[in-house]
Design goal:
5 helices; single chain; flat
Length: 126
């Protein structure tokens, strides 16, 4: 069981590294538009996407570490996470710091990683 956890963590870290590489290239490509709003939209969207996935994995890890998981703390943590995510997004859009379409492109980096992982699975880690 412990070996499975270790292999899963290694795959997760490898996926995060891939996401950072893709985020770097997307951010570099967004500089071609010569707009700070587009650059920050892609960069902040990708960053929030990665933070979102890490927080979700920590929440899931807490659930599976308990012998009899209690749902209330997990649900409360998830709701707080969603309020923070939507609050940050509302602030950024309301103050016109980012371009919403660039944010969506950056935030969808996780979909790219899932697609790449299904097409080109990472090497088995032992």
């Amino acid at each position: 069981m412990e070996a499975l956890k270790e292999a899963t963590k290694k795959k997760f870290i490898a996926s995060e590294k891939r996401a950072l590489i893709i985020l770097f290239f997307l951010s570099a490509a967004s500089l071609l538009f010569d707009s700070k709003k587009i650059f920050f939209g892609v960069l902040i969207g990708g960053g929030l996407s990665l933070v979102n996935i890490v927080v979700l994995s920590k929440i899931g890890e807490k659930i599976f570490q308990q012998t009899s998981p209690r749902k209330a703390p997990v649900i409360i943590t998830y709701i707080i996470k969603m309020f923070i995510l939507f609050g940050v997004l509302f602030f950024l859009i309301d103050h016109e710091i980012i371009d919403i379409f660039a944010f969506i492109v950056g935030f969808s980096i996780i979909l790219l990683i899932i697609g790449f992982e299904s097409i080109f699975p990472s090497q088995k880690t032992t």
